[in-house]
Every structure is written in structure tokens, then in C-alpha cells.
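Researcher: We're teaching a course module on how sequence relates to structure. For the next exercise, students receive a sequence and then see the predicted structure as C-alpha cells, so they can try to spot secondary structure elements on their own. Here is the exercise chain.
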Amino acid sequence: MIDDGLGRTAMPVHGCERGEGGLPSDGRRGPRPVVREVPLVCGAPAAGTLVLRVGYRGAGFSGFAAQPGRRTVAGELVRALETFLRRPVELTCAGRTDAGVHALAQHVSVPVSTEELGVGRHRLLAGLSALTPDDVSVSDAWRAAPGFSARFDALSRTYRYRVCDSSARPVLAWDHAWWLRAALDERAMHDAAQVLVGEHDFASFCKASSAVGRPTCRHVDWVRVGRVEECGEGLVAVDVRANAFLHSMVRTIVGTLVEVGRGHRPGTWVRRVLEARDRTAAGPCAPARGLVFQSVEYPDGALAPWGE
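Model: And here is the predicted structure for the students to work with:
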């Protein structure tokens, strides 16, 4: 613990000075220590942080973030946690997903007290499972240092987008794939996507209204496009990992690559879209139902198993 010079109790943790996911204000890739204020739990500094892995089927939600009068993932989680812990809670997620987007491994963090750190893992997970609806799954729990943030301490996020490019309607993939009804050249899509790897200004690939007055540079670690078979159904999968994502960034990347895969645009067009820094230069935004938040990466040692 240290004093931050303003009379507040704080401690150094890994995070970012601006943006999220290892994007410091000087543009370097990767985390660096910053002073972050330790939150209070019932009037006392938090003793630690509860980190949960959460999955959800997005069709029934108006996105992750809480919205008055709308059903959201955050709303369901807060309701369950407040019932279980018997107190108000504030949670932070690794990445806010839009309406209709699914998740296998969303991560959320909640400051907790010393007493709450003593709750057993089985009791915690069983209790939250009983208190959440059928389209939400709390599958694992870890403990982290006070001040840890599921958002700001994340090094990277990975998404997968699924496309069914068959004339036959998908059966089991219906709820989590875009049925395109047109054949795609996945190799052309993969090759065209490689221009997106690295640190770039992705203004062309985000919702225009969300980019006003905000930084739009992100670092993409990789983009992979290939065919997969899941439950006997053939799909085209687009996997993207980056330090952080802009609003609708993955879905706009997919919509742009599909234009190449259908032969409507040459592969070199993607570079021109990137360089334009203009949303109107890119392809359409792919439907939300095909997108899944796959995973989050944190620094080694940041998360420890929650006690039994």
C-alpha cells in the first residue's frame, strides 16, 4: 500500500494509463505499473478482488452494460451477487459486448472483504448458478489483489465470429452463426486480413458515433480465417485477438472480409479501408448473433485459484 499524494490509500498494480488492455498513453504494447486507488467495501479498503468467468447467450440481452429498463448481463450478475453477498456491488467487465453478442469467457471483477474471501469456491459457484438465469453461466472464480480490474489489467481479448456459407440452413449453429447463403473464399479472406495485424488506427472499423473525440488506435495480435466443423456443421471462423476493441470493430472487420470472400472486392481493398480512417469506406457490420467473446489474457500471477 502507498499514499497517492492525495490522502487516499492506493497500491501499484498492472494496468494502463489510457484506454485498456496494455495500451499505455505513450503507445507501447504491454502493461506497466500504475497507481490505482483501492476501492472500499462496506466502508473499508477491499481485501482482495473476486474475478469470475462468465458465459452467456446474447440473444436475450440488450448487451452487457447495465441500462435502465432493459435486461442486460451486468444487471443479472449484479442482482445475483448482491443477493449472495447481501450488499451493493459494483462490477467491471473485461469487454462490454453489444446486444445479441455471446460470450464463453467474459471476465468480471468485484472488490471483496476479508470475510468474503473466505467463502468456499463450491458454495460461491453453486450459489451464483442458482441465482442467475438459464442464459448465464458462472463457470469459474479466482482471487486477485485489491484494485485489480478485469478491464484495465487485461493484456488481450479474443473473439470468434462464425459464418455459415452454405445454401442449407444451419441447425445447431443457427443461434450463433451468420447464415450468409453464399460461398466464401476463406483463404482470400485470411490473406486480406493480415494487413490489420499490428498497431493501427481502426477508425474505419468502428461505429462512427462512438469514435468522436476518442482514440481509435488498437493493437491486433492476429487475425485468422479458416474452416471449422462443429457438431457436424461446416462453418467459416474468423478469430481476432487484440489488446482492446472499438465498438463493433470485430463485426465490421468480418463484414469487410466477407466482401473479399464473396469476390466483390479484391484483397488489396482492405488496406485502403484501413488507411481511409472512415467508417463509410468499410464493409457492412456483420450481425451480432455470430460473434462470441472467447477469452481474456491477464499477466502471469495476476489471478490465483479461489479457495475451496
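Model: If you want an answer key for the exercise: Residues 1-29 have pLDDT under 50 and may be disordered. The two ends are 27 Å apart (CA to CA).
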